[in-house]
Amino acid sequence: MVEQFVGTWKLTFSENFGEFLKLLGVPAAQRQMANKQKPIFSLSIDDQGTITMQSLSIFKVTELKFKLDEPFEETTLQNKQATTVVTLENGKLIQNHTWDGGELRVEREILDGKMIVKSIMGNALVVRTYEKEA
Q1: Contact call for residues 86 and 74 (beta carbons, < 8 A)
Q2: Is the pLDDT at 134 greater than 80, yes or no?
Q3: Which of 8, 11, 18, 91 lies 20 to 30 Å from 32 when distance is taken between CA atoms?
């Protein structure tokens, strides 16, 4: 089922991203730059079941390698050490990050050929839409 996420995706729509970054403590100048970015997201799976997710923008390349249901350590965009677990639930790829004093959930799902990404922290919600590149 993860196969539906495989490919390269380009951001086409973003809702509430700046406010979400503010909640995360990102400085105003960085929020403005981040809001102007149209990152490219890619996901691949190797023959051992290792998933690689990459997010590419002008300023940063982020890459995560993991297996479903296996916790791993990562450094968040806020430079915090977090434990992350990625699961597949009802066709959604769910990424749960936890760190001292914080928790973030990212839900990815495919709807009408588009990847809808919801990031949830407390009562804050960001919705970003990606379209698959040919």
Answers
A1: no
A2: no
A3: 8
